[in-house]
Amino acid sequence: DAGITQSPRHKVTETGTPVTLRCHQTENHRYMYWYRQDPGHGLRLIHYSYGVKDTDKGEVSDGYSVSRSKTEDFLLTLESATSSQTSVYFCAISDVGSRNGYEQYFGPGTRLTVT
Amino acid sequence: GESVGLHLPTLSVQEGDNSIINCAYSNSASDYFIWYKQESGKGPQFIIDIRSNMDKRQGQRVTVLLNKTVKHLSLQIAATQPGDSAVYFCAEKLTGGGNKLTFGTGTQLKVEL
After folding, report:
1. Partner-chain contact B43 A41, CB within 8 Å
2. Is the peptide bond before A39 cis (omega within 30 degrees of 0)?
3. Which of A48, A94, A108 sits opposite B1 (nearest CB)?
4. Tell me: the pLDDT tens digits for A63-103?
5. What's the first-to-final CA gap in chain B, in angstroms?
6. In this structure, what are the phi and psi dihedrals at residue A2, rounded to the nearest 5 degrees?
7. For the ranges A36-40, A89-93, B63-67, which has the lowest average pLDDT?
């Protein structure tokens, strides 16, 4: 998985509790992304980062926040988890797009269940 | 990780046959396209990419064709093997859209022995 780890890999939590998912990379790539994957939908971008402390919203950012205090770590926080946030969450990384393309490399995913 | 296997179009092929997986993309301003493979329980894996100034690109056992006129992308897999069974989806990047990709919903490829 291109030097990308996600933790935890599985989590069950109750509605209303805060949850933080961690993505760690060893590739020194500039860009990091958080997606969610649900049946009937493609991967949907939640937030992304284009550098340390530089983040921006994706198409489904409501209810989520992110932080990136160092190049290798990108945290996704659900401030108050809801059942609609039950999903599989993927982290991805990419280098600066150029001659080498814009491909993103994905971690193994985190399955989150909110009861 | 998990793959999204529900409610997906399915393509069933015999082992050794060629597979063609199609993708209709949404934006004529897209300038870069990628195909990903996602096996059950894993994250998506990069297969091949193509820029909009190309019509065809070949990799190892895979070929991507781009038809900009009808906004259509296809992935051809030669001599399909059981290990090719997975969900395949395309992604597009908008011109001027930075590094962000927009992903399709995917096609389930099943290889029958």
Report:
1. no
2. no
3. A108
4. 999 999 999 999 999 999 999 999 999 999 998 766 667 89
5. 26
6. 55, 35
7. A36-40
